[in-house]
Design a protein that fits this description.
Glucose Permease (Domain IIA), alpha+beta, two-stranded antiparallel ribbon, 247 residues
Length: 247
């Protein structure tokens, strides 16, 4: 009996798998992640995926920002016309200038008795007309920014204020001779050059039709003899005098 008990092998109790944290299963899982990250293609793939997510989020954010209401002043179609050909051409296309109850007139007592010796240079005119409105000074040609009137008989004539205003400039210049400038409402200035017998001073208020001088001579256009050089400027910009007068 004792021999039989001694010869019978002892049975070992069955072992249960270890599933606790840090046990065998966790060790296998950790080893698997290390093997995965050890592959060369894994890290670049993760980087590209993260970048794609960031770009997508930025795109969504920008789209939402653009659709949100703005707090700035909206620009209307009318505001956007500023600086276009339509608004810039108003001075050139004007037929008359009104200051108070007056309409600008020629600075001459008898316009029909005088002739235009040198016209205003209009860049919209024909080649022949533009060529006729060039002034030669030495070897240089410059566009003529006024109108020169002469009496066919060569006589002097009265120069009148084309519009009521204030005399803001009276001076004798080396090439232009005696010059008078009268400032009017709306930024308009009338200029009278090559005059003599000046009858006004700076600061004088003159009414339309007042005799302010007589036609004379200047050095720049000495070939014209006795004449009046007349200009109109709107906010400093030369304007064709003919475009401001309704004839």
């Amino acid at each position: 009996m004792n021999d039989q008990n001694q010869s019978k092998p002892k049975q070992r109790p069955e072992e249960t798998p270890k599933t606790v944290l840090g046990g065998t299963s966790a060790a296998k899982s950790s080893s698997g992640w290390r093997n995965l990250f050890a592959k060369r293609w894994v890290s670049p793939a993760i980087f590209m995926a993260a970048a794609a997510i960031i770009v997508t989020l930025m795109w969504i954010y920008q789209g939402a920002d653009q659709t949100s209401p703005t707090t700035g002043k909206a620009v209307s179609t009318e505001d956007s016309k500023e600086g276009t050909t339509e608004t810039q051409g108003k001075d050139d296309q004007a037929l008359e200038v009104i200051a108070g109850n007056e309409t600008i007139k020629w600075p001459l007592a008898d316009r029909a008795a005088l002739q235009v010796e040198l016209p205003f240079y209009d860049d919209k005119a024909s080649d022949e007309e533009r060529e006729a409105a060039l002034v030669q000074v030495g070897d240089t040609f410059s566009p003529h920014m006024g109108i020169d009137f002469v009496d066919p008989s060569g006589k002097s004539f009265d120069v009148l204020a084309a519009l009521s205003g204030k005399v803001t400039y009276v001076k004798t210049e080396p090439t232009n001779g005696n010059v008078i400038e009268i400032t009017h409402a709306g930024g308009l200035v009338t200029v009278y050059q090559s005059v003599t017998d000046v009858a006004v001073e700076v600061g004088d208020d003159v009414t339309q039709g007042t005799v302010i001088a007589k036609a004379g001579r200047n050095d720049l256009e000495r070939d014209l003899g006795i004449h009046l050089h007349y200009e109109t400027r709107s906010n400093g910009k030369p304007v064709n005098p003919s475009s401001l007068i309704a004839e």
